[in-house]
Amino acid sequence: MMENNVFQVDFDAVEKEVRFYQKEQAELLNIESAVQQQWVDKNPTSFHRNERATTTVLFGGLTLMQDAFIQAACTGIGYRFQALDCPDNDAMQVGKEFGNRGQCNPTYFTVGNLVKYLIYLRDVEGLGTKEIIDSYIFTTAGACGPCRFGLYVTEYRKALRDAGFEGFRVLLFESAGGVRQGGEELGLDFSPKFFKAMFKAIILGDVINLLAYRIRPYEKTEGEVNKILESCQQLIIDRLEKNKNVIPALRETKRKLSVIELDCLRVKPKVSVIGEFWAMTTEGDGNYHLQKFLEKEGAEVDIQPVTNWTLYMIWAAQYDARQQLKLKLSWKQKTGLSKKLILLKLADVVMKAWFNRYAKAAGLNDYHLADMELLAKDSHAYYANELRGGEGHMEVGKLIQAVKYQKSHLVVSVKPFGCMPSSGVSDGVQSLVTGQYPEANFLAIETSGDGAVNVYSRLQMALFKARKKAQQDMDNVMAEIKINADDIQRKANKQNPKTVNIYPSHRCASTAANRVYQLFDR
Amino acid sequence: MSRSICIGIDVGSTTAKCVVVDAGNMEIIWSKYERHETRQAEKVLELLTQIHTDLPHLSSSDIKAFITGSGAGPLKDIIGARFVQEVNAVALAVEKLHPDVNSVVELGGQDAKIILFKDNPETGERQIITSMNDKCASGTGATIDKCVLKVGLEREALSGLQFNDKKIHHVAAKCGVFAETDIVNLIKSGVPAAEVLCSLADAIVMQNLSVLTRGNTLTAKVLLLGGPNTYLPFLQQCWKQRIPQTWQERGYEPENSESSDELILVPDNAEYYAAFGAVVFGMAEQSEEIKYHGVSLLADFILHGRKEKLGDSADKGLLSGQSELNTFRQQYQIPVFQPAHFEKETVIKGYIGLDGGSTSSKAVLIDEQGELLCKQYQLSKGNPIQDAKELLQKIKVYAQEQQCELEVLGFGATGYAADVLEKSTRCDVNVVETVAHMMSAKESCGEDIDVICDIGGQDIKVLFLQHGQIKNFRLSNQCSAGNGMLLQAMADQFGVKVEQFSDVAFNAELSPKFSYGCAVFLDTDRVNFQKEGFSKEELFAGLAKVLPKNVWQYVVQIPRMSELGTKFVLQGGTQYNQAAVKAQVDYIKERVPDAEVVVHPYCGEAGAFGAALEAKRAVNRRGYSTFIGLDETIGLKYTSRTDEETRCTFCENNCSRTFIDTETPDGEMSRYIAGFSCEKGTVESKEAVVKLNKERRKLKADYPNLVDYEANMVFRRLPKDKVIKTAEVDNALSSKILSLLSLRKKQLADRGALEALRNAFRVGIPRVLNNYSNAPFMRAYLEAVGLKSNNIVFSDQTSEELWNEGGKYGAIDPCYPAKVSLAHVHHLLYKKNNRKSLNAIWFPCITKIQSFTSQMSASTTCPVVAGTPKVAGAAFTKEKNHFEEHGIDYLDAAIDFTDKKLLEQQLFEIWSPLLQLTADENHQACVRGWQAMHTVDIELQRRGLEVLTEAEKNNTIALLMLGRPYHNDPGLNHEILEEFQSLGYPVLSIRSIPKDTGYLKRFFHDDIEKGLIKDVFDITDVWPENYSVNSVQKVWAAKFAARHPNVAVLDLSSFKCGHDAPSYGIVDQIMSVSKTPYMAMHDIDANKPGGSIKIRVKTYAYALERYQEKLNDRSASINELEKRVKQKRLDLLQQHIKQFNSDLFIEDSEKWNKIGQQYQQYLKESSDKQDSGFEKVVAIENAGVNVQFSGDLLRQRDDKQRLRAKRYREISEQVALEEEKMMGGENK
Q: Whole-model pTM?
């Protein structure tokens, strides 16, 4: 209350009336309505432990094999995980309708795939929107760039909002292993147990995929490998769902696969598929069924295991820590970094050992995960190791290694239209690499969900050269050992039955040539 | 023994070719080449049947068939032919027929291919390098065909056309749609047909040389293959001129110095190379034996087989039955327009509106009440004046036929032709298309419209209305399609009149699912679907169905259509196509069930109708018309001239211009100048340029363009006294004085040599990408280590010339900012270096940069931007090492601007070997770098604060450019900002927004209070995944604009920008919820889309004018409110005083003053306590106070800096003293 020494005027009363009047007049003059509203992105991420039993966690995006194993492994540790189908062109259309313009097509495929499934639940299964929002969540990996991969979750939210599923929860687990949500009673507990299940599934998927791509081109009876693998996959899933040791299932897989009759003497071009992570991993419309197409055209496909990606992440962290160690830091900081490096080294060793253990059990012999240090060294002159995003220097490194160490006859680098690290940088650098390694047979293809005809046509163009190279390998080995085709056949007819179905060790790119080395004990 | 015969079949996108080859001697014994008119299977059947008729002795069992070409896939198994990929086929044919050829360029209907033969020096093997165009480089046969149709040149004239590089206009051949847009603009500007086609040829050749060669040189001999190269002499001549130029540029000399005709040749029978090559290939690869089936299976397939294969992938047709069609037609059939009929000898008074569209021109006559009397239409004939003359003549005839007199009261023009007509006919209004369409829709369909969707020949325009005014709008960018032209082109391809399109489409029971998007992609889809066997009915239906997707999903990008309202008006010539309307209605109603969709009754002439209405309004308001008159217009004589004399010489761009001189029957002359790329092109004499420049300077002073200011400032040397010394330098200096001195002692010995080295050292830095952020650091760092200021050389700003000269080395096609960087490196290598030798080019891979925003998960740059230095390095070391050749070190090592210590280390590793730096020198230089960055930031913010203060004070609008730092480059932003500057809007950059927390609190206070954000620079409320530094800054700036009433936004993004794409939706939401004026220009690329920019600028300017009115209204309301409140307070006060102390009399002014003072005091105290929502509104309006406040803050900060500077000077003196002592000591 104001003191009114001179005149007893009640300012409060006056002001009260003035304020009332002001409000009334402001409304009359239409001023109040002009207060600016501001947009806020509702980003619901709450998922409590008590919801776990009634909530289905949707996910997807790796190979079919890996998605199936993740589903099983997470079931085994008490979650209701459900893998989405491999994204198809319809999913991409949905993604385009609800996503931002100018996105790369893995975004459209994966985002569209989720929205498409939710629309299916709503329109076909007849679930209410609220019910869907309450009983389903989606989880995906995130990253701190620099590629837009880490921004997918923004796209998921936008598409879900625009498709009428505002409030649908998208939970992000950092690929580096961090946890985004706060709170103690987490529904999705990104604990070591969770990541162990995830990595187990990923490594298992890699091992089985690698086995399949190795032997399928050489099976004598078409379709046999896939048939047997299907039953093996189920064996592994059964173990995973019960959270049991998978080694017996892998041994059984090895036994079952070893009876398939192979003819590794067929001269086939070996094609390394590299490029953008999703485009080279997916097995559907997203890369025009690239792997299947190549096999149909008579090639052996050398796929990239997802485990390599994990090793790359570990390598990147190690590299950065080592860079930091060069700086003038306090003793405490240096100790911290050294500890970090030890832990990272341990992680690297564990991942490799884990992979090798499964590989050995399943019969994936003589397979070596990429040596990240060597890859970085081989590529550094062309592509700075500090440049991250996508596959970083790995694309360039893989091409160099494919030529340098005779790994394949053709390197296909597949990437979405406008992929930043891959078509925006790597391909530019690859032109220098191919200039310096003229023997390289390299083909970069962009995918955008249409124009498959052009892609196939270009692949066929490159395969022509690859076939010639494969034959050259065979001719070379024959010249080296001084034998002819009849000698090989004779030897093959007399070979030790135990070694018939063993995929030969690497000496050169051609499996048939390697088989000849194997036959002649060279 | 029977002869072994091979048939080679090549099925391309437009033609089919067949050769019959004797396998014994590889001789061609039969050949034929025909257009298949999209009936590939039928044409192949015809050709094969012909072979069997002409060569009756052939038995199918002796034949091996090989098939190649984009249409081969579905036919190979049916014919029993081995498939051969076409590039392989051509390569083999060339190897066999021309062993001395090193390069092949083949242009087809839909694709372009380049084949290079290189000898591997190690193995001696001849290697084949091939490349095909990616989807975006479709400037090939089909584009040429379409453009030839557009310029209206006969085929005979085409074969006689000679290439002339003296009259080349800008055409973007990156993509067919871009090229067509430019061609239309050239035609509309009156550029002669021959020049248009030469420009197109040049653009296609340059595009192929710069992109398709993937940075390789086409070494001699070069073979030109494919339809366009074979049949268009001007295209051949263009190659023959341009290829040797690239040889010269790259220092390549053909081994034998033959003439270009011998080095670059078009062989006879070039059209058969693929077919013949298929045979060569097939013969070489015997592994797969395929049995030739003859023609019977193919005939059967054509009759029955194709349909069966279509399977489930197809969509439904447009209709479920005849009854649906009847109902639809009843509701949406546009009534046939009947022109008004008049009694003989009536004087018909009215206004004429003319819309010079991209493909057609329309004119209408309306009466004084705005009723439509007659309308006229014609396909554009190339020159806008000619079109206008003919249309007006038709209107005159309309009156004459009724024996009436026509009195034209006014004339309005819109569309591409409006500018020319404004000059030549002095029309009453030159109205932008969007506004014309709004006027027209409102007149015909009522004021309550929510959305107007106009689909013209080339553009799609969608306007959102509120209270009868444009609230927002979307225009198709260059990368969009599904427009009228596409439907027209499709109808043409199938020989169907466009009027019958819908009749055909309605007959389809199913339709292929096209992917929406670019017209070039759609055409690729069309070819594929056709190959799959879809009929024309189905293709038409499919295309009609893709149209709404293009409009609503690609152009409009608002998925929840119901938010837009319920009344939709469809207009534009495409709405005459009932199939298109049906697809639109179905699409809209599916998403907005209660929508009312109205088709404009004169949909084709809606623009012209709007222009007439606007002319009527303008003439009524003005009281007279400026129009020269009907007969005068019809009688206009005009000449169109493009030659060396008309070329603009006022800057180094030397734009080719067209002068259109018109003369009215009474002898008045006017000149319209077309084809220039900047304002200088609008004048003809030096004096006029001087005058223009003077006006520009004044304009720049009145309405500052801080984007431009920043673009220049960051690269300039900072005057020493302006550099703000931060605390860091104090600490750095004071704590390290001793160590410094001891190090310097050692250094002093060979200081002379070092100084000389550093003094002479010249560094070139490309003026690109994130150097637009960090250049102040880079310059200051180098200066601090001892480089002379003028030895730090930046490449010039991006220009067309710079791009054309250096843009041909890249192997990839990323966003323009990235690929133009290569041209900048080239510029440094060949321009700056030639002037005075450079020692190094520094183009670091910048992986992270600092940001003023907070709570970020990281601060990374875009991977393309970061990696481009490596791409540039690859491009210039691939064929030969350009750097080594010039003795230049190329420094592209990665640096990280977010980690100061790491940066220091990285810089030391880069520079120490070259400049022999000590660690301390390096450290000091880094400190200087940071100081320079800080100085630039403060200066820009000071200017920004001035602009904002001025805008708030005068209640006007400032335009904020949301862009990445390199969009400051006028060569990248296409000088769009200058357009707005010339309209009287000052322009702000993100960096120039004041970052003073005190200043910003007023905008973000509420959000902090609500706990949505932690501080004023936090954007997690709208974007938690915020690691892409430049995009994050854009989003923050969008938030700022959304909270500042005087800021409108212009959002620029480059084509293929992967980091901006995820933020489109976010920025859009921020802008639309806060109702901030906003215009986006995404997909900016190398070419400047002049026409598209013009219409956007005009439309946005219209929206800004409306917003300005709103601001004025609001300000007036607030003033009025203040007045009323003051009065009320006074009244209440009097009443209260009377109540409490009735004998106190008002006349005593001293007492009154006391009450006043008390009251002021009271108000001040209470306002500190209370803070109602309403008062905040008023507070925002009274921003002046806060600005003052913030200004004070900045001043305070300046004072602190002055103190620091003083301290710095003191320490420096101390150091100098110490040094002197030491020197003295040593001397002794």
A: 0.84
